[in-house]
Amino acid sequence: MGHLIKIYLYNTMIDYIITVLLIAAIYAIFALGLNLEWGFTGLINFGHVAFLAIGAYTTVLLNLSGVPIPLSVIASMCLAGLCGGLLGIPTLKLRADYLAIVTIGFAEIIRFALLNEGWLTRGAMGLYGYSRPCEELIEYLHLDYNTFFFLVVLLILVLCYLILEKLIKSPWGRVLKSIREDEEVPTSLGKNVFRYKIQVLVLGSMIAGLAGSLLAFYLQYINPWNFVPLVTFYAWIAVVLGGSGNNKGTVLGAFILWTFFSVTRFAQGYAPLSPTQMGALRIMIIGLLLIILMMFKPEGLLGKKEELTLES
Q1: Which of 165, 198, 17 is nearest to 93 (CA)?
Q2: From residue 18, how far is each of 59, 102, 209, 255 by CA, in Å?
Q3: pTM of the model
Q4: Are the beta carbons of 243 and 299 closer than 8 angstroms?
Q5: Mean pLDDT of successive 10-residue segments in the chain (312 residues)?
Q6: CA 122 – CA 187 distance, rounded (Å)
Q7: Is the dihedral of CA 132, 134, 136, 138 positive or negative?
Q8: What would you measure as the largest C-alpha separation in the chain, in angstroms?
Q9: Taking a C-beta distance cutoff of 8 angstroms, is the pair 40, 173 a contact?
């Protein structure tokens, strides 16, 4: 009996670790989109979660309407990118602080639209009952679905990372860095800065939309409360923690953040605090750690000082 209990506990622990890594990988993809916008181009986007929501809801609604999963995901990415581009047209000419205000306002508009348009989104009841990728293959692969889905998400994360690295090291990426440092320099060389910013916002939004699709498949139930403004700042924490302007650091920051969230969850049984108080304490600890990090290593764990924006 003791041997069986050990096997059960071991399997439970492995399942939990895979779940944590799965969530971290999804948010790493989400954070990579923000790192492209802020870390490499200097665009302050406090409404990044809006595109996560657009990706999730579009995928689910299309899937519930009978559209195949691959087409649903592609459509969600396209819609998120389109919304990002349309948002950028009137806002990218604003100063950085105004851009931040507009983007967080846009995110709240999207969330409240999802909450109140019950005829389409079921409002606060949320959406459920949609299918997941390759569910019918699991019995043949002899894998737990979360394990299989983690491998899929990990592959997508690696592809996103490699594509972004290729883009950043290209002439296009060098223009983005010059925009981040001083817009007047690329402008004087004949570069259309506004067009580059739109391209970045579209691509970053598409990546967030992809992360939203993956998050919806993992959760199997979504509602507007999954997309509160705090989720955007999870991505910001990952970018700042790992290193702004460093894709590898962003991925590392996302995994460190979710590992911290998962480990501190077990402290609930040892601290005389309610679940709400414990949740607030965990956020406070993250904030304190970020302050200490910014004091002694402002470029992040893997970042370089030359990659910091001038406004940092």
Answers
A1: 198
A2: 24, 37, 23, 12
A3: 0.92
A4: yes
A5: 64 85 96 95 93 97 95 97 93 77 94 93 93 80 84 96 96 93 87 94 97 96 94 93 91 92 73 74 80 80 66 44
A6: 47
A7: negative
A8: 75
A9: yes
